[in-house]
């Protein structure tokens, strides 16, 4: 799914109006009707939770959406109040027509809010609909509108935002001013056609809450033709990537992977990653460990072949890689001085596709401080969490800044950068960013990243293209947590992810 700028979304509206027998007002009715249906369903699902719906409208088209929603909810016999916030900005034609229709088809009285009016009392058991401002915002919200937003936020009522929480910019380049103006804190955002890019960052989650994408009938032809560097990975995208197993295949068909991992006290990281490699379908796995890990790994995972370093507690002698289809390195390696010096020399000579994680990245970050000429291997994927990434690329002021540096780092070094988080972002060497849609907070547990490294390594060994391996592995990793959530599991340990991975993959066979 392509992610678009606010300007592109407006162009999409205009394209649909120009090429379909539909007016701007009819498009508004269509979008608002879907919102009203969703809100009505919430009302009945949570029967008795709310006493009424309070709809706050601006005088633009987002406010027009709010008026249509109020009219339709009222006709469903749901108690509604409507508030219109008047500013110096002139009302749009669509808003004015929707206001007349609300007046003619209902007995609702629109309550005008302006500087000289007393604010209405907002009950904690009200459901507030935020239809104040839309995606066209290009500066921080100030003045009386900011006062209204602050008043809404001070209530304990749940807020459903229409298309975008009022005050939140839709475009990444405007996020530098989110701390300068008022922004609605939504419980749920009902957004039109595609998620807005700013919904997907850690800095903005507090405003967006959960979000639902409502497909309002914009023409697909525009989306197919428009260029963007940002994509939102859904299950349907993965269906085109995943390769089902062949009837006459054998273990050699699915590749031989080498995983280099572990040190004293961190053999568990090597075990978690190794298990994920095999669970994701790799035919053969050799795990390279310090000697202290031999008995542990041979006992816990007999399906893996084991090679050991000459050292007892850490790896100092990185192996020849010539017989393997793909390499994974980093989980639990530790930061011993001799490990670092050997690793940095070795990794620059790797010729196969390689995924680097954890201490592998920390060692590279330490090396980059004094050696900017360091060259990542070709066909390389790195999988940092935010702190690891900041060590590599420098401190970041916010999530948008980190995303920009992630894109720049991927292009500069011509590698794939998988920045782990609630919506993991995968920056490709060509400038594209793929934002993951799967997963939940259960993944915030020790060893989860080691499992992801194993899944990526497995797909690389099986012959997946580097970009596809990163995008698909991240999706499958998150989908395992979603599967466990559906099974009514509240928490997980990292090994749970590998255990259910074959069941998740089965959906794509």
Give a description of the structure:
The chain is an alpha/beta fold. The protein folds into two domains: 6-228, YjeF N-terminal domain (Rossmann fold, 3-Layer(aba) Sandwich); 238-242 and 249-506, UDP-N-acetylmuramoyl-L-alanine:D-glutamate ligase (3-Layer(aba) Sandwich), CATH 3.40.1190. The protein is built from 17 helices and 17 strands. The chain has helices spanning 6-19, 24-45, 61-75, 93-105, 143-154, 205-208, 220-225, 235-238, 267-279, 294-300, 337-347, 359-368, 386-393, 399-413, 448-461, 466-486, 494-506, and strands at 52-57, 80-85, 110-113, 126-131, 158-162, 188-192, 210-214, 230-233, 256-260, 284-289, 305-308, 326-329, 354-356, 380-382, 416-419, 425-427, 433-436. It has a ten-stranded mixed beta sheet with strand order 8-17-16-15-14-13-12-9-10-11. Helix 11 links the parallel strand 12 (326-329) and strand 13 (354-356). Helix 9 crosses helix 15 (448-461), helix 9 (267-279) runs parallel beside helix 17 and helix 12 runs parallel beside helix 13. The mean pLDDT is 96.
């Amino acid at each position: 799914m392509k992610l678009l700028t606010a300007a592109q979304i407006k162009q999409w509206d205009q394209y649909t109006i120009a090429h379909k027998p539909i007016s701007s007002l009819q498009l508004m009715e269509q979008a608002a009707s879907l919102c009203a249906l969703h809100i009505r369903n919430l009302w009945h699902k949570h029967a008795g939770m709310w006493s009424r719906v309070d709809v706050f409208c601006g005088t633009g088209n987002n406010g027009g959406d709010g008026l249509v929603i109020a009219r339709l909810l009222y006709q469903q016999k749901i108690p509604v109040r409507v508030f219109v916030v008047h500013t110096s900005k002139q009302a749009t034609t669509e808003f004015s027509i929707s206001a007349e229709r609300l007046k003619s088809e209902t007995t609702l009285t629109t309550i005008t809010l302006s500087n000289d009016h007393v604010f209405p009392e907002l009950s904690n058991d009200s459901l507030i609909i935020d239809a104040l401002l839309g995606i066209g915002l290009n500066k921080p919200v100030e003045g009386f509108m900011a006062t209204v937003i602050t008043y809404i936020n001070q209530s304990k009522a749940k807020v459903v935002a229409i298309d975008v929480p009022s005050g939140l910019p839709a475009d990444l380049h405007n996020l530098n001013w989110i701390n300068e103006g008022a922004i609605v804190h939504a419980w749920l955002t009902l957004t039109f056609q595609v998620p807005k890019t700013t919904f997907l960052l850690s800095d903005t989650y507090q405003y967006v809450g959960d979000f639902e994408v409502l497909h309002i009938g914009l023409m697909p032809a525009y989306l197919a033709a428009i260029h963007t560097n940002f994509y939102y990975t859904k299950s349907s995208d993965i269906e085109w990537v995943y390769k089902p197993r062949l009837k006459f295949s054998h273990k050699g068909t699915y590749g031989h992977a080498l995983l280099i991992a572990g040190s004293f006290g961190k053999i568990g990281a090597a075990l978690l990653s190794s298990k994920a490699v095999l669970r994701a379908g790799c035919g053969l796995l050799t795990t390279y460990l310090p000697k202290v890990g031999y008995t542990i790994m041979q006992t816990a995972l007999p399906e893996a072949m084991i090679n050991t370093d000459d050292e007892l507690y850490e790896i100092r002698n990185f192996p020849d890689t010539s017989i393997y289809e793909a390499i994974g390195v980093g989980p639990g390696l530790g930061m011993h001085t001799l490990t670092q010096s050997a690793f940095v020399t070795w990794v620059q000579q790797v010729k196969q596709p390689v995924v680097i994680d954890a201490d592998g990245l920390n060692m590279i970050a330490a090396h980059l401080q004094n050696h900017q000429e360091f060259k990542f291997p070709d066909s390389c994927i790195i999988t940092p969490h935010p702190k690891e990434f900041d060590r590599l690329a420098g401190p970041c002021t916010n999530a948008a800044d980190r995303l920009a540096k992630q894109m720049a780092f991927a292009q500069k070094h011509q590698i794939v950068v998988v920045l782990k988080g609630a919506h993991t972002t995968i920056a490709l060497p060509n400038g594209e960013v793929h934002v993951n849609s799967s997963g939940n907070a259960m993944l915030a547990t020790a060893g989860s990243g080691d499992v992801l490294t194993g899944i990526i390594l497995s797909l690389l060994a099986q012959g997946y293209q580097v970009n596809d391996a990163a995008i698909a592995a991240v999706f499958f990793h998150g989908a395992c947590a979603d599967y466990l959530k559906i099974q009514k599991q509240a928490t997980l340990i990292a090994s749970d992810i590998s255990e259910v991975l074959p069941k998740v993959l089965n959906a794509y066979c």
